[in-house]
Write a structure and sequence with these properties.
Nucleotidyltransferase, domain 5; 7 helices; 5-stranded mixed beta sheet; globular; alpha/beta; about 40% helix
């Protein structure tokens, strides 16, 4: 079985893949000082809780936080006896190599989203990922990542607003009932929700115009379901796109002799 690990700036997700489906998905906060033993204690406790019989033979890791990769490597080697694939490293092959400026390092999360989206929807895509940052990944007709856009994440923007303006409260984001707020919380929710709807719509339209071809817009990430409520913003929503992309890259490496 495959253990797919996606380590983001805020959360780290472990998913167990049996070759056909994910048996379970486990989530913890990202913390660079967490040891291999701590990972295993947390992981084994939850697997036991779910009553799942697993025999992990392979591990693949995508991490936007470089400092956690060492302990995750030790975790895979010590407890599963395998050398993990790490997306972005030279020995981890990609179904299609990115076409970006020479010397540019593309975030592993963006490479994984590209692979997963192309496998499910084909090429000519814009993948909008609502994470700590809101990213736009442009996928060419052949499945290559060809660039994109990075904007501040929704929760990051809310936190910055709260910290920088003493009189403004911390607000949980939701779709407001109307655009014009009649109290402070509604005003902030409207500004953030409709502001990001406008940001996503405008950036996607400009990407399509620049690419000069029809493109599908795919949403993923924690807040993607919220923004699905904005009509005609996205063509598809995929809640497990990143984890699916990890299985695609792992399979490609298996078939091409890299693992």
């Amino acid at each position: 079985m495959l253990l797919a690990i996606d380590c983001g700036n805020t959360n780290t997700v472990f998913s167990i893949w049996d070759g056909e489906k994910f048996l379970c998905t486990l989530r913890t906060s990202t913390h660079h000082a967490r040891t291999a033993d701590a990972y295993f204690t947390w992981y084994s406790t939850l697997v036991k809780h779910y009553g799942i019989e697993v025999d992990i033979t392979d591990v693949i890791i995508s991490s936007t936080v470089p400092r956690v990769v060492f302990n995750l490597r030790v975790f895979a080697d010590r407890f599963f006896g395998c050398r993990p694939l790490v997306v972005g490293k030279p020995d981890c092959l990609l179904p299609a190599n990115p076409r970006v400026d020479e010397g540019t390092q593309v975030g592993p999360d963006r490479l994984v989203n590209t692979a997963g989206a192309f496998d499910r929807f084909g090429g000519d895509l814009v993948v909008v990922d609502f994470g700590t940052a809101t990213t736009f990944d442009v996928v060419a007709h052949d499945g290559a990542y060809v660039g994109g856009v990075i904007a501040p994440g929704v929760n990051l923007s809310l936190e910055a607003l709260h910290l920088a303006a003493a009189a403004l409260p911390h607000v949980d984001i939701s779709k407001p009932q109307k655009v014009i707020g009649t109290h402070t919380v509604e005003c902030i929710q409207s500004g953030v929700f409709w502001g990001y709807v406008g940001l996503v719509r405008e950036i996607c339209e400009r990407i399509k115009a620049e690419a000069g071809v029809p493109m599908k817009v795919i949403s993923t990430g924690g807040l993607a379901p919220l923004f699905q409520q904005a009509a005609d913003l996205f063509d598809e929503f995929e809640d497990d796109l990143t984890m699916h992309g990890l299985t695609v890259i792992h399979r490609y490496n298996k078939e091409n002799g890299s693992t």
